[in-house]
Amino acid sequence: xxxxxxxxxxxxxxxxxxxxxxxxxxxxxxxxxxxxxxxxxxxxxxxxxxxxxxxxxxxxxxxxxxxxxxxxxxxxxxxxxxxxxxxxxxxxxxxxxxxxxxxxxxxxxxxxxxxxxxxxxxxxxxxxxxxxxxxxxxxxxxxxxxxxxxxxxxxxxxxxxxxxxxxxxxxxxxxxxxxxxxxxxxxxxxxxxxxxxxxxxxxxxxxxxxxxxxxxxxxxxxxxxxxxxxxxxxxxxxxxxxxxxxxxxxxxxxxxxxxxxxxxxxxxxxxxxxxxxxxxxxxxxxxxxxxxxxxxxxxxxxxxxxxxxxxxxxxxxxxxxxxxxxxxxxxxxxxxxxxxxxxxxxxxxxxxxxxxxxxxxxxxxxxxxxxxxxxxxxxxxxxxxxxxxxxxxxxxxxxxxxxxxxxxxxxxxxxxxxxxxxxxxxxxxxxxxxxxxxxxxxxxxxxxxxxxxxxxxxxxxxxxxxxxxxxxxxxxxxxxxxxxxxxxxxxxxxxxxxxxxxxxxxxxxxxxxxxxxxxxxxxxxxxxxxxxxxxxxxxxxxxxxxxxxxxxxxxxxxxxxxxxxxxxxxxxxxxxxxxxxxxxxxxxxxxxxxxxxxxxxxxxxxxxxxxxxxxxxxxxxxxxxxxxxxxxxxxxxxxxxxxxxxxxxxxxxxxxxxxxxxxxxxxxxxxxxxxxxxxxxxxxxxxxxxxxxxxxxxxxxxxxxxxxxxxxxxxxxxxxxxxxxxxxxxxxxxxxxxxxxxxxxxxx
Length: 748
Known about the structure:
CATH architecture of the largest domain: Beta Barrel
CATH superfamily of the largest domain: TonB-dependent receptor, beta-barrel domain
CATH topology of the largest domain: Maltoporin, Chain A
Oligomer: single chain
Helix content: under 10%
Shape: globular
Number of domains: 2
Strand content: over 45%
Radius of gyration: 26 Å
Structural class: mainly beta
CATH class of the largest domain: Mainly Beta
């Protein structure tokens, strides 16, 4: 760490001697030769950009020497991407953008080389938070289920955790602000725990990403990109409000950001409150209510060859745990049992740019306070139960680091070497102990290279990881609930290779083969008691081994101006898959479940098409199908495997309707879930169902002030249904009925 600080001080002290470069030019429409205003000019490696003025002119100053990628994008036009060598004091780049009905591409941040999707060797799904919100999602956990291959294990509408191609919990890693989101994610009823306010976009890596992120990325990565700082010498602000009829939900946030040439600042404050949701039969699911408060802020400082930023996120959630259809009211205060969760996420990211190489250091510190309150019986002679402290009170503190050096490009080869790790402590303060006080240490070393050929690209990587877990003894040996001391160490080598080839101008094929691993978590190793959130008595196994997997992905993609389709297939073999299995006994009134290991296989994929019929570029027809099968090698099915689903959308877009109305859109989506009969021993089959959703929206200029309006309705037919991944299914409780969302966003 000392050397990192020395490098930062060195970068600051010699700033004046580095050559400073500028980039300027004009962007026009190829068909009309007219200048284009508000075109985005962005340098992803430098995280620096600007927009064109009314004459189509742009200029970016204080750029370092070296080769950097530039991305020029504008709605309705093909995205331009190129690497530019800033060797002269001023570099000129003027372009004619080609009109296109295909959506503009964005830079993928979750992979190390920061390329556009079509340039990536690894296929990564990306969608903006705005798109997810326009579809009427109550929160981020619900919104990501619109991404093919992604589902959510839900407990009502307030709690959800991502499922990527049939894998979830500690097998899927979530990143926010560039660091790991650690919030006791081992529990089925532990939600994602982060607000969509201040999140710009979501990227999903489907499959093992242990090469890039280490343990817990065996099944994939959900990468949340925070909103960018304002462009230099610019000020922005906005206010957003949403109302949901089903839960009488109120969701709002407001943000402000400002930047000078060197200093940048942003802040966003948000919150939400929802009552118990109603099913399609009109009954409220008692205690499904939830509320949230969220604050995100950031500060950045940027010089020619150095930049650094610090971000902080505070989030508090009060989440009811529904169990039955009981009292029917619209109270907003959670009843017991409920969770009270507070998270603090502090991160810093610093970059030093040399001539054609760079060093990046990301440091993170997160604190997750999880309190769970159980129902208590009333004392003799008392009308109400006596209020007691939390049954579970766990404090998880995680210090993480990620150092990556991007070597100078040698010919067609880009290479990154890195060092990653974390120190994590878990402490208990409640009446009960689910997992012991423990310390976890990780360290990983990686190297990956991207090799560019004329019509293809090759990416290779290798990584070594070591994890140690030291857990304290809890309780008295021989008595119920006793947890023995733990001292385990886990090692793993992982390899990844990928090849992308341009079969033609519009046809791309990708082949990726990667290994991954996951060290067993504290719950799997040490549990010995009732897990109230799941109504199970869980017994861990201190002798569990690493989970290891090898996944092969093959994708074919075709895209032209008016039509695109894709087919993604995968086969994932997992050694020593850890799973829960009932042993037929009962303890403390709950069925006893043991943690076991067995080899498993998952396979499936996604397919879809997107059609813009010429000359009706305003019309969009889209269809996406997702399937996954999970099987234990010696027979039986894996739990929590999502049902196959097929989504069909009819969408219209009108960029300019008149002087006052712009960016108009409307859509109708029919999403069908097939029956799920391939279930584990303690699951039941789920019937199929279809949900009809629709929405409209536009930007309305009122006395010169633009206001974004949107209106959407999910499950418009108010269908009574149960999702296979709903944890309330075992209680006979249905999912949410018709829910109409009205949203207003006002840029300031």
